Amino acid sequence: MNYFKSFSKALKSMKAVEFEKLTLELFHWQAVNCPVYAKYIQLRGLSPAHIQSIKEIPFMPITFFKNQKVYCEGQGAEEGYFSSSGTTGTETSKHYFWSMEFYLDHSQRLFEQVYGALDNYHILALLPAYLERKGSSLTAMVDHFINRSHSPHSGFYLYDHKALRDKINLLGKGERKVLLIGVTFALLDLAEGGSTLKDNPQLLIMETGGMKGRRKELIREELHARLTESFGVPHIHSEYGMTELMSQAYSSGGGLFRLPHTMRAYVRDSYDPYAILGQGRVGPLNLIDLANFHSCAFIATQDLGKVHADGRLEVLGRMDNSDVRGCNLMVSG
């Protein structure tokens, strides 16, 4: 049986206690079948056969997605790829994926585990920077959510903020919840755009991060304070995902993310990228995403954060000079 199909089936029924078993199985498979990851392990001087615990697994620098094709061999051609956004002149990441259907079904499953069925919502999306380019995994996911909400009111909005506010006020009279999901700078533009929103206990605001050079960066507390005051909601929800991941994590407030059953987060030492810090310490994040079974599930990101004692993840920002720090193995291919 095709390994991708087999592993994707295992993810659907996996239990929390099976995480380490599936992680080690996937590591040993990718260490052979993902050429980029296999080469990285070799250059590190490591023997995959000697790695028998999660703590020993090497994490591949996320920058490899910018200059390498990170994809496993022997299972057929990729269906397509997602690409990251970037400023003019910067190199973008490409994440080649096995199946769009798997990605969309998986994303829906993770969302509904936290928030309930999509058809209980009107989905209003404010993602102008993403909607205006091709290859965004976030746009593909939200478009799927809109379709699965089965609401004639669900849809994307660009810059017509008055129409969006009018729609939110209209939907506040109904029984369905209203989810406004937006990139950070666009939500701030909407918040500062004038006409007020009526009291709407059904409204949820979810920010996906990202100023994309459009506005001055704000700390999370200031951002959420501005948005809660403008939209009249008690707290701001957040989604954490990226081009190089297939899974998403969600926060119901306070910027603390509950990781889905397919993910784990670890904090590495800023000065020793191979050392893992304990809970409560701040440093760059290493992520395991088992839904990346077709590419590489073990990624050393450029995000800073910490893991709390209860397992929740707090994302604090990006590393300074992140493109030039850390391991530079294989930069030129």
Describe the structure.
The protein is an alpha/beta fold and 333 residues long. The chain has a domain of 151 residues: Rossmann fold (3-Layer(aba) Sandwich). 31% of the residues lie in helices and 21% in strands. It has ten helices and 15 strands. The strands form three sheets. Strands 1, 10, 11, 12, 13, 14 and 15 form a seven-stranded mixed sheet that branches. Helix 9 links the parallel strand 6 and strand 7. The chain starts with a helix and ends in a 15-residue tail after the last strand.
What are the SSEs and their pairings?
Layout: H1 3-13, H2 19-33, H3 35-43, E1 60-61, H4 64-67, E2 80-83, E3 94-97, H5 100-115, E4 121-126, H6 128-131, H7 137-149, E5 155-157, H8 161-171, E6 177-182, H9 184-191, E7 203-207, H10 220-231, E8 237-240, E9 249-251, E10 256-257, E11 263-268, E12 276-277, E13 283-289, E14 298-307, E15 313-318
Parallel strand pairs: 1-14, 4-5, 4-6, 6-7, 7-8
Antiparallel strand pairs: 2-3, 8-9, 10-15, 11-12, 11-13, 13-14, 14-15
Helix pairs in contact: 2-3, 5-7, 9-10
